[in-house]
Amino acid sequence: MERFMKHISTIFRCAVCYRSKRLENIGINGCQTSYVMHICKNPGITQEQLTQQIHVNRSSVTRQLAFLEENGFITRKRCETDRRTIEVYPTEKMTAAFPIVQQVLKDWKNALTEGLSPQEKEQIEVLTEHLARRAKELV
Prior knowledge:
The chain has helices spanning 2-23, 33-41, 47-54, 58-70, 92-112, 118-138; strands at 45-46, 74-78, 86-90. The chain is mainly alpha-helical. The longest helix has 22 residues, at 2-23.
Protein backbone atom coordinates (compact mmCIF):
# COMPACT_ATOMS: atom_id res chain seq x y z
CA MET A 1 0.00 0.00 0.00
CA GLU A 2 2.94 2.33 0.63
CA ARG A 3 3.88 2.19 -3.07
CA PHE A 4 0.28 2.91 -4.03
CA MET A 5 0.22 6.13 -1.98
CA LYS A 6 3.62 7.09 -3.38
CA HIS A 7 2.22 6.73 -6.91
CA ILE A 8 -0.88 8.79 -6.06
CA SER A 9 1.36 11.50 -4.62
CA THR A 10 3.63 11.46 -7.68
CA ILE A 11 0.65 11.77 -10.04
CA PHE A 12 -0.67 14.71 -8.02
CA ARG A 13 2.67 16.56 -7.94
CA CYS A 14 3.27 15.97 -11.65
CA ALA A 15 -0.26 17.20 -12.43
CA VAL A 16 0.42 20.44 -10.53
CA CYS A 17 3.69 20.93 -12.46
CA TYR A 18 1.99 20.20 -15.80
CA ARG A 19 -0.83 22.65 -15.09
CA SER A 20 1.59 25.31 -13.86
CA LYS A 21 3.65 25.12 -17.06
CA ARG A 22 0.58 25.23 -19.28
CA LEU A 23 -1.09 28.10 -17.39
CA GLU A 24 1.84 30.36 -16.54
CA ASN A 25 1.06 32.67 -19.47
CA ILE A 26 -2.33 33.55 -17.97
CA GLY A 27 -1.03 34.02 -14.42
CA ILE A 28 -2.52 30.94 -12.77
CA ASN A 29 -0.51 28.15 -11.18
CA GLY A 30 -1.32 24.46 -10.99
CA CYS A 31 -2.63 24.68 -7.43
CA GLN A 32 -5.17 27.34 -8.37
CA THR A 33 -7.05 25.35 -11.01
CA SER A 34 -9.45 23.91 -8.45
CA TYR A 35 -10.25 27.45 -7.30
CA VAL A 36 -10.98 28.52 -10.88
CA MET A 37 -13.22 25.52 -11.45
CA HIS A 38 -15.21 25.92 -8.21
CA ILE A 39 -15.57 29.71 -8.37
CA CYS A 40 -16.60 29.80 -12.03
CA LYS A 41 -19.11 26.99 -11.56
CA ASN A 42 -20.45 28.48 -8.31
CA PRO A 43 -20.28 32.31 -8.38
CA GLY A 44 -20.85 33.60 -4.86
CA ILE A 45 -19.36 30.50 -3.24
CA THR A 46 -18.18 31.25 0.28
CA GLN A 47 -14.64 30.84 1.51
CA GLU A 48 -15.88 28.18 3.93
CA GLN A 49 -17.51 26.23 1.10
CA LEU A 50 -14.27 26.39 -0.88
CA THR A 51 -12.38 25.06 2.13
CA GLN A 52 -14.76 22.10 2.36
CA GLN A 53 -14.94 21.36 -1.37
CA ILE A 54 -11.24 21.68 -2.17
CA HIS A 55 -10.15 19.92 1.03
CA VAL A 56 -7.48 22.41 2.10
CA ASN A 57 -7.16 24.42 5.27
CA ARG A 58 -8.67 27.88 5.71
CA SER A 59 -5.34 29.68 5.65
CA SER A 60 -4.48 28.16 2.27
CA VAL A 61 -7.84 29.25 0.86
CA THR A 62 -7.36 32.76 2.26
CA ARG A 63 -3.84 32.98 0.80
CA GLN A 64 -4.86 31.71 -2.64
CA LEU A 65 -7.89 33.99 -2.76
CA ALA A 66 -5.74 36.98 -1.82
CA PHE A 67 -3.42 36.16 -4.73
CA LEU A 68 -6.32 35.71 -7.14
CA GLU A 69 -7.90 38.96 -5.98
CA GLU A 70 -4.64 40.94 -6.24
CA ASN A 71 -4.20 39.64 -9.78
CA GLY A 72 -7.71 40.50 -10.91
CA PHE A 73 -9.22 37.01 -11.07
CA ILE A 74 -11.84 37.36 -8.31
CA THR A 75 -13.76 39.80 -6.20
CA ARG A 76 -14.78 39.11 -2.62
CA LYS A 77 -17.91 40.57 -1.07
CA ARG A 78 -19.52 40.32 2.33
CA CYS A 79 -22.75 38.36 2.25
CA GLU A 80 -25.73 40.67 2.68
CA THR A 81 -27.61 38.23 4.90
CA ASP A 82 -24.62 37.21 7.06
CA ARG A 83 -21.93 39.88 7.36
CA ARG A 84 -19.43 37.33 8.73
CA THR A 85 -19.52 35.38 5.47
CA ILE A 86 -17.39 36.32 2.45
CA GLU A 87 -18.62 35.36 -1.01
CA VAL A 88 -16.26 34.92 -3.94
CA TYR A 89 -17.08 35.91 -7.52
CA PRO A 90 -15.12 35.43 -10.74
CA THR A 91 -14.09 38.51 -12.70
CA GLU A 92 -14.08 38.69 -16.49
CA LYS A 93 -10.40 37.72 -16.33
CA MET A 94 -11.20 34.47 -14.51
CA THR A 95 -14.20 33.79 -16.72
CA ALA A 96 -11.88 34.10 -19.74
CA ALA A 97 -9.35 31.76 -18.10
CA PHE A 98 -12.00 29.13 -17.27
CA PRO A 99 -12.14 27.38 -20.69
CA ILE A 100 -8.35 27.39 -20.88
CA VAL A 101 -8.13 25.72 -17.47
CA GLN A 102 -10.77 23.19 -18.51
CA GLN A 103 -8.77 22.34 -21.64
CA VAL A 104 -5.52 21.94 -19.69
CA LEU A 105 -7.26 19.56 -17.27
CA LYS A 106 -8.72 17.58 -20.18
CA ASP A 107 -5.32 17.45 -21.93
CA TRP A 108 -3.67 16.14 -18.74
CA LYS A 109 -6.27 13.43 -18.31
CA ASN A 110 -5.95 12.37 -21.95
CA ALA A 111 -2.15 12.36 -21.85
CA LEU A 112 -2.09 10.46 -18.57
CA THR A 113 -4.48 7.75 -19.75
CA GLU A 114 -3.05 7.45 -23.25
CA GLY A 115 -2.68 3.81 -24.22
CA LEU A 116 -5.37 2.57 -21.84
CA SER A 117 -8.46 0.87 -23.19
CA PRO A 118 -11.86 2.49 -22.67
CA GLN A 119 -12.60 -0.23 -20.09
CA GLU A 120 -9.39 0.49 -18.19
CA LYS A 121 -10.17 4.21 -18.20
CA GLU A 122 -13.63 3.48 -16.82
CA GLN A 123 -12.17 1.19 -14.15
CA ILE A 124 -9.75 3.90 -13.04
CA GLU A 125 -12.62 6.42 -12.83
CA VAL A 126 -14.76 4.08 -10.74
CA LEU A 127 -11.95 3.02 -8.42
CA THR A 128 -10.55 6.49 -7.82
CA GLU A 129 -14.06 7.84 -7.25
CA HIS A 130 -14.54 5.15 -4.60
CA LEU A 131 -11.20 6.00 -2.97
CA ALA A 132 -12.03 9.74 -2.96
CA ARG A 133 -15.41 9.11 -1.33
CA ARG A 134 -13.77 6.91 1.29
CA ALA A 135 -11.02 9.49 1.95
CA LYS A 136 -13.64 12.19 2.55
CA GLU A 137 -15.37 9.94 5.07
CA LEU A 138 -12.14 9.51 7.00
CA VAL A 139 -11.41 13.20 7.57
